[in-house]
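Hey Z.,

So I finally got round to the coenzyme A thing we talked about over coffee. Here's the setup:
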Amino acid sequence: MEPLEVLLRPFRIADLDQVHEIERHSFPKPWPKFSFVVFHYKEPDGFQVATSNDQIIGYAIMATERARIAPHERTAHLANLAIHTDFRQRGIGRRLVETMIAYAKNMNAHEITLEVSIHNGVARDLYCKFGFVERKTIRGYYGKREDAILMAKRCLEREDKYSSPNIGVLMAKKEDIRERVETVLNELIRPSLRADGGDIQVVDVNEDKGIVKLRLMGQCTGCPMSGNTFYNMVEKTLKEKIPEVKSVRQVSWGQYLEV
Ligand SMILES: CC(C)(COP(=O)(O)OP(=O)(O)OC[C@H]1O[C@@H](n2cnc3c(N)ncnc32)[C@H](O)[C@@H]1OP(=O)(O)O)[C@@H](O)C(=O)NCCC(=O)NCCS
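And the result:
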């Protein structure tokens, strides 16, 4: 299969027809177009599209709101996720879920919830791999004959298959440098960032060019020292520990992301 260059970026109104076309082919009861527009205006960065050669090939929508019990925290809801039928099973769904989890963490959400059809084994499997657990069945959520499973993931835990260094063998097949980047971050960098309420996410690793793109999250994003932190701690450490890493770049939300 040809390697695919995929970009993630926030949804634009001009994407609406293509997004809705994917929606129609993905769900028996598709959302109307205006629902996408509402989510876009409510939380623009929570609605991300995956594109390849300027074609929309998938999207994910997350909505966050202030938590009732702890108002300084938020809860996040993964409201929609779909990949164009021609582009499934190429890791794009996984990328979008990973990005949405990072977004939720960046918004200080303590938990992500979602509903998935009881019959949708593919999506349930995907969410399980990111540490979502099945919390309860919602009878008749999609109409009389179709129940939903409410799934939830606590954001502060790191039990997901795709980011744990302990089960990196699966990633090592295709992303050896990425795995080592995660290991260095987990062992040498994240503990001190987290002690200050921050974190860091791997956005992209270009194995051929040795370019690593990272995003500072949580308290790190607004910190006036984040430039220094990035250079002194993150870039120097990664280059020292992983000789194949030639360049370490910082990206922020809303920017075009190469994945
Ligand atoms: C669910 C969906 C988003 C997955 O997207 P995708 O890009 O094909 O998924 P990925 O290639 O990233 O695969 C990630 C995981 O999903 C699961 N998966 C994907 N396709 C699968 C298939 N055909 N059979 C079984 N598992 C599958 C696997 O667990 C896979 O992990 P692996 O690569 O380690 O085996 C996509 O199938 C889709 O758009 N479905 C219709 C809409 C939908 O159901 N959305 C979810 C609503 S809650």
